[in-house]
Request: fold
Amino acid sequence: MDLNAIQAALGEQQLDGWLFYDHHHRDPIAYRVLTIAPAMCTRRWYYLVPAVGEPAKLVHRIEKYNLDGLPGAVHEYSSWAEQRDKLKGILAGKKRVVMQYSALNDIPYVGLVDAGTVELVRSFGVEVLSSADLVQLFEARWSPQALASHLEAGRVVHAAVRRGFAMIREAVSKGRALGEYDVQQEMARLLDVEGVEADEPPVVAVNTNSSNPHYSPTPATSQAIHQGDFVLLDVWGKCRRPGSVYFDITWTGFVGDLVPNRCTEIFNIVREARDAAVNLVKQAVQESKAIHGYMVDDAARGVITTHGYGEYFVHRTGHSIGEDVHGNGANMDNFETRDHRKIVPRTCFSVEPGIYLPEFGVRSEVDVYVEEHEARVTGEVQQAVVPILSGV
Reply:
C-alpha cells in the first residue's frame, strides 16, 4: 500500500479518510488497493486510512491477523456492541470519509459495501461518500510497463483478427466447410502460441448472431460461414505475465468482393459515433478540460440517435481496461449506468458503439489511452467493412 499517495489524494479531495471494510471477501478492491492477500474473513474487519496521521485497524479477536503487514494501530473486538463502540472511536473527529459505495448505485462496480454498514457509519455523524474516483487512482492507472504490455498484446490481437478473416477467405474460396467455432478456435490458438491469454475465447459472429453483443459460438451452436455473410470478430487478450493489461478490439467483414450498401451505411454511422467519442476525449485532454465517462457515451449515442438508430444501440459506449478486460476505471457510460467519474491520465478504455439490427449487427471497437496532455488510439482503426474475399 502506498500510504503517502493515498493520504495525498485524500487531502487533495478534502476528505478525512478512506474506510475499507470486508466480510466474506465481498470487496476485492480493498485487497488490491491495500496490497494484501485475502485471508479467512468470517468476521468483519475495518481499516481507516486518515488524511493525516496513523491508520487504524479494527479486527475480530479470533481473526486478529487479517490486516497484518499494514501500518497502524490495532483495535480488537469480540461482541457486536464492542465492534460498534470501537468503530465509532476510530472515526471520532472524522466528518467525511469514502467507502466502496455509490449513491443510488450509479457505479455498481464500486458499490460493494452493504447498505447496513453505510448506515452504521452514518449513525456516528460521519458522511459517507463514494471512493470511485480514488479507486481509479490506485486501481486503473497504468505503469509504463503495463502500457508496453498492452501494445505488445495488441500486435498479437490484430494478427489474430487478420488470421480470422484470412481463414474465412481461404475456406470459402476453396469451397471448404467452415464455422464460427472453427475460426474462434484458430484465433484462440494463435493468441496462446504468441503468449497472450484471455478470460474467454474470441467472439466470431455471423449475420443474426452479430446482433447479439455477447454471442459466443460453441461446437453445438456454431453457424456455417458462406459467401454473402456478414462477420463480426471481437478479440481481446493480455500478455501471459504478471502485471499485464488487456487489449480489446472488434472488427467486421463481409464474405465477398464487394460490401453491400446497407452494411456500409450502418458501419459508417458506427464509425462516425466512434470517432465523435474519441475526438471528444482527445480535445478535452489537449485543452486540460475535465471529461467524464458519461459525456463520452453521450457523444457516441447522440450520433447514432441522430441517424435514427438509437434503439439499436443497446449497451454502453465503452469500458475501463486493466489487468481484467473490464477494469475499475471510468466507463464510457450514460446508458446502463451514469458514470460520472473523471477520465484521468494513465488510464485506458474501449470505445465501441454498435448498431444491432435484426439481420446483422455492427460494432467498431478501439482502445483509447489517456496521458497528461494527449489521448490516443493504441491500435489500428477500422475505416470500412473488410471485403473478405478480396483480401485483408
Q: What stands out?
A: The mean pLDDT is 96. The chain has nine helices and 17 strands.
